[in-house]
Each structure stands twice: as structure tokens, then as C-alpha cells.
Amino acid sequence: MTPTTRSPLTPVTLGLDVGTSGVKAVAVTAAGDTLAESTHPYPLLTPRPGWTEQRPADWLAGVRAALRDLSAALEGRAHPLALGLSGQMHGLVPLDANGEVLRPALLWNDQRTGAQVEQIEARVPRADLVARTGNRAVTGFQLPKILWLRDEEPEVFARLRHALIPKDYVRYALTGVLAAEPSDASGVGALNLARGAWDADVLGALDLTPDLFPPLVKSTDVVGTLTREWAAATGLPEGLPVVAGGGDNAAAGIALGLSGARPDVGSVSLGTSGVIFSPLRDPTPDPEGRVHLFAHADGGYHLLGVTLSAAGSLEWLHAKLAPDTPIAALLEEAAQVPPGAGGVTFLPYLSGERSPLMNPHARAAFTGLSLAHGRAHLTRAVLEGSVAALADAYGVMQAIAPLNTLISTGGGARSDLWLGLASGALNLPVHPTSARPGAAHGAAILAMPAAGLHPNLTAAMDATRPDLHPPVPPVDMADALTAYAAARTALYGG
């Protein structure tokens, strides 16, 4: 008998996405194939209307479980070489001098900081802030959260020594090293994009100092290594290199192959929020700050147009008006309604609105309702309203970063009707993908150069870029766009 030989273990990188509803961990090969994945949920805290918080300890519990699952699934099959991170942007994790969490984290969709946004705009002219940071002051960003802490919880602020973004806190827990990278740091509201450094002038005007924030590294840099404690808790190798990673939108863009090297290809995401992603080579903001400009994890930049309630609007309608009807059935009903939803229009501002209104106080509305309308018209209007809001944002972006092609992502990408409506609203071809890689996959790809799987990030993105399906047929949105613009202008101006 000839002795049996074990096949060599497949080299992989791991990606971890610290999301709003839970953590996702993936193991990805050099070719972009997913060998294993795990998700673990954690709670969302809403102590008051408009407030959203999470306990960082809950993130760590989810991370521990997800990485343990991944380690078990890879045993005897694959060898992890590096770990990259991604996560929800803009949140504030306040730490004391010993690195201990001072209070629950304030999240990206928390709306308590209206007074602090006014403080920022009173001390730093909007045009100057946009020119420096790429963005106006926004309630969801981290910087006004720090000011809120100073105003409303001064005893906590007095102990504050480090302000971290969620994924950077998780990385600190895994490695013991404080660091930030540009794609997430540019969502704080205090990063000078042109210089790639914390803006001492902006912070000084607010009586803050740059040493509150971690040192900046590149998104592909190794920040530290997995500690002995975390290795024992997860089954992963002690000393596993941990890479900086990127914010969730930037990491998802990396997973889709979006880069300033191909500035005409962007993405449309129909997740809880709706997002148009457009890569840029140079940091060129909208002068009025109606859309976001962030650093990209590839070393370039990107514009984001964001409507806060895309699939979130459909989930709201489902939960409140038709909880016993599957969402797939609602979509089938909506497909039978002609374009324009019989004159019903929906403004999807259930959580306020970002682009282009930048108004946390905006509220949703149905207009044009009559006795002739039913549930199917409401569903169709929600679908049309969500993509009309994206078209509203793209109208601003198009002058700066025009696109020729969109790749679809997010849960709404499963609906050909919704993608067709998006194509019709944006007047761009929308391509589904066979795989639906997300931020966790992008984090794993960002770790590939450090793992030696590819010589650089460009090569890693080329090797893992998903295959595109033919574009979905566009659906007529002309009447819906006209009605949306009229309703939006009547309630919130042009």
C-alpha cells in the first residue's frame, strides 16, 4: 500500500465586518472564492426616539463567536494568513486613558446631535469645512457626537482620551494597537482629505485636539497581530497579522472592484439605506456638501449619495401594513401596477434624509392617494420613491463624477423590478452579479497583499472582481421622477 498524502491547506485571508445588525466573518481565497462564512447578531439600543447605540462588548462577543466558527470550518482545509476589518462608519466609541469603554457607542444613524451640528457650522464656515473635509457637518458623523458628549455628559467627556470608529475599536481589542485608516477616518468630519491628516484648524476651532484620534495608516497596512488571548478564544493562530481595512462602503467597493482606475464604473446599493458609489481620483467635493466625499480604501476617493431608507422603507411597509404577507408577494403585486403607481408618490424620509437634502428632520410622506388605490400602489410607490431619491443624489454627483455603469448590491438587488426601476431612474445600465460580495469580502481582499496572496491591492481586486450578469431591462420612471420632484419641492424646497 502506498501511504496517503494530505493535500496542502488552501491559503486564505479573513474578513470581518462589524455591521449594525451583526458581525459577518468570511474566509476568501486568492481567487475570491468564499470557503467559509459566519454571522452573529447583536442588539440595537434605542434609549430615546432618534437615539441609536450599541455596546462594544456585544460586538466583541459576536466577533469571538464568528471567528470561532470560521476557525472550526477551516480546520484541515485552509490556512488563514491575515485578517482585515470593515464596519459601520461614523460611530463614536469613547475610551479612557486605559482603553476602557466609557459608555455605549453612538451609531451612524443616531440623530441627537442637531445642536452640535449648528455649533460646528457657527465656528467653521460650511464652505471651508467642505473644502477641507469633503463634507458639511452631519448629525450622523463622529465629530458632533464628541461635542454632544462634552455638552450633555461632561463627566464622561472629562475622562475621554481616545475617540474610535467601531471597526477600529474591534481591531484595538484584537491587537492592542490604536490606529485609523482614511476611508473610515474621512467619515469623522475632521480629516483634511488633501493632506490625509487630522485637521488641527477645524479641531482647534471646536476646542479639540488631533491627539484625541488614532494615528493614520494605509488601509492595506498591518496594524498589529492577534493576541494570545484572542487566539485562544477563537482557535486562530496567535500572531495572525491584522490589517487596517476600510469603512463598510469602501470595503464593499473593493469587493466589487470599484476603483479610481476605472472611474466610470460605480455601484448602486439597495440595502437598509440606498447608496450610489462613484470612484474619484482626486478629492473633489460638491461645494454645497449635498453628497459625501470620502477617502477610498484603494488610496483614492469616492463620492457617496445616500438615502437613509431604501429597503428600510419596504421593510417598514411590510412590518406596519402587511406583516402577514411575504415581501416577495408584495413585490409581485407591485409589478402589476403601471409605472407611476397610479399617481401615488412616496418620499422615503422615514429616518430623515441625507443626500441631497441633508435634513435630519425630513419626514416621509405618501401623496396622491385616492379611494382607487390599494396596497399594491403603496408598495410600487415605495420602490419608485427609493430610487427617485437616489436619482436626486446622483443629479448632484453626475457633475463631478459621471458614471457609465452600475453594479448592484444590497438585499434589494434580488428584485429585478427594483433594479429595473433604479436603472430607469438613474438612466444607467445596472448589472447584477452572480456572487454578492460585501464589506467582509472587501476586508479580506484588503488583507491579501499583506498575506502575500497578491503583490498589491490592484492585483488582488483584478483577481477577485465578481462576474457581471447582463444589465436588467430599465423600467420607465419618467412620471414617477416628475411627481417625486414636485412633492419634494413642495415639502422641502428645491
Automatic annotation (TrEMBL):
Protein name: Xylulose kinase
All copies of domain Carbohydrate kinase FGGY N-terminal, residue ranges: 13-253
Residues at which substrate binds: 89-90
Catalytic activity reported: D-xylulose + ATP = D-xylulose 5-phosphate + ADP + H(+)
All residue ranges annotated as the Carbohydrate kinase FGGY C-terminal domain in the record: 267-450
Record-annotated site: Important for activity: 17
Annotated CDD domains: ASKHA_NBD_FGGY_EcXK-like
Family from the record: Belongs to the FGGY kinase family.
InterPro entries registered for this protein in UniProt: ATPase_NBD (IPR043129), Carb_kinase_FGGY (IPR000577), Carb_kinase_FGGY_CS (IPR018483), FGGY_C (IPR018485), FGGY_Carb_Kinase (IPR050406), FGGY_N (IPR018484), Xylulokinase (IPR006000)
